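---------- Forwarded message ----------

FYI, see the Entericidin A/B family lipoprotein record below. Original note from H. follows.
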Amino acid sequence: MKAGLGWLAVGCLILMLSACNTMHGLGKDIERGGEKIQNASQ
């Protein structure tokens, strides 16, 4: 039973880390879009 909980915890950790990476990439994409809008307005 303890081994199953350990694997569950590892699985949850992997999902959380991948979600952080995805949000980081999304933030970069939004930032690039904002920069293009600023450059177009100048």
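H. also flagged this: The chain has a mean pLDDT of 83.
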